């Protein structure tokens, strides 16, 4: 009985000595939650982090000294509410979206410039190797291109049949299904290139090489039939965005893999968390690029049959993405 009474008195004295700060913090958080941040004065906004740290200290003492459970529960609830004010995002959805598009995504892509160059070099290497093999022996085409992807565009097809596949004469209903299929395929490739980066980046590198090999095999086949210019236009209208998206996804995977293998002076988990943030931001933008590529591939490429116009769209896409990612922005946040 004496121990219980002493514990209650101890808890009362502890609460009386600090309760004023708790009540002030509670009032400020209530004001921010029920009204708006604009209703808080500068001094009140500056006071909240100080009062929050004081409350955390009191909560730690209360737990260690086994004060009454009611005090501990009150402090835990108050600390949780204040935490979201101090550390939580208070920007609106629209503000976060604008920040992502204007600052966060371009900066993440810029930070991956070395990995982007490496991924592009790997894709080019795969294209050169595959095109050389198919040029020397057309049967190599089937080693790189599965039947469901070639859709009749193979060495056994006549030159006229290959030319017709580049003309964009499919029906409108077919375009929608084709766009959905290609978007799903490209999204899977990009996500795999990113996700496989955790295995030291080697599977990501192999996937990028294979994507380049697919491109090279197609190029060798059509160039051998005198259709290289037409194929270039057919690819340009959507391929700039699509291949750039896959390259960025591969670059993000390579960044993760490099960090896993060589974390540097930091702890591996800390280094991986830092790399994961920039790579994750880049991947969020890759999904946007794949949506654009899916629309261009399923609709624009089929509806725009003029080769010159296809090259113009592809060139405009290249200029847009390069300017968007790499031209400095005045007033960009650091």
Write the layout of secondary structure elements.
Blueprint: H1 2-34, H2 42-64, H3 69-87, H4 93-111, H5 113-136, H6 141-144, H7 147-150, H8 159-165, H9 172-195, H10 202-224, H11 228-261, H12 268-303, H13 307-326
Helix pairs in contact: 1-2, 1-3, 2-3, 4-12, 5-10, 5-11, 9-10, 9-11, 9-12, 10-11, 11-12, 11-13
Describe this structure in words.
By secondary structure, the chain is mostly helical. The chain has 2 domains: 2-90; 95-326, no CATH class. It contains 13 helices and no strands. The longest helix is centred in the last third of the chain and has 36 residues, at 268-303.
Task: Summarize this structure as a short list of keywords or feature phrases.
mainly alpha, elongated, single chain, 81% helix, 334 residues
How would you briefly describe this protein structure?
By secondary structure, this protein is mainly alpha-helical. The chain has helices spanning 2-34, 42-64, 69-87, 93-111, 113-136, 141-144, 147-150, 159-165, 172-195, 202-224, 228-261, 268-303, 307-326.
């Amino acid at each position: 009985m004496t121990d219980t009474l002493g514990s209650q008195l101890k808890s009362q004295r502890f609460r009386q000595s600090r309760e004023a700060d708790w009540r002030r913090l509670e009032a400020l958080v209530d004001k921010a939650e029920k009204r708006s941040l604009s209703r808080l004065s500068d001094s009140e906004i500056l006071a909240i982090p100080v009062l929050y740290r004081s409350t955390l200290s009191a909560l730690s003492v209360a737990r260690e000294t086994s004060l009454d459970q009611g005090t501990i529960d009150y402090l835990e609830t108050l600390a949780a509410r204040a935490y979201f004010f101090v550390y939580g995002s208070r920007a609106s959805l629209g503000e976060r979206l604008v920040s992502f598009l204007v600052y966060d995504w371009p900066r993440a892509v810029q930070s991956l410039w070395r990995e982007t160059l490496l991924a592009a070099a790997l894709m080019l290497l795969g294209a050169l190797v595959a095109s050389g093999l198919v040029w020397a022996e057309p049967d190599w085409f089937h080693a790189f291109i599965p039947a469901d992807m070639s859709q009749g565009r193979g060495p056994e097809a006549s030159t006229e049949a290959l030319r017709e596949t580049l003309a964009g004469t499919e029906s409108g209903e077919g375009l929608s299904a084709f766009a959905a299929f290609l978007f799903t395929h490209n999204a899977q490739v990009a996500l795999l290139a990113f996700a496989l980066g955790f295995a030291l980046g080697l599977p990501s590198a192999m996937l990028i090489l294979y994507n380049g090999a697919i491109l090279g095999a197609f190029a060798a086949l059509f160039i051998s039939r005198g259709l290289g210019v037409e194929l270039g236009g057919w690819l340009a209208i959507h391929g700039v965005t699509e291949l750039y998206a896959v390259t960025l996804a591969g670059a993000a995977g390579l960044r993760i893999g490099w960090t896993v293998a060589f974390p540097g002076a930091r702890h591996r988990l800390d280094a991986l968390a830092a790399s994961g943030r920039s790579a994750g931001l880049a991947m969020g933008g890759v999904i946007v690029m794949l949506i654009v590529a899916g629309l261009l591939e399923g609709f624009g490429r089929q509806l725009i049959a003029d080769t010159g116009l296809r090259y113009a769209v592809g060139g405009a896409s290249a200029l847009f993405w390069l300017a968007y990612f790499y031209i400095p922005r005045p007033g960009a946040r650091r």
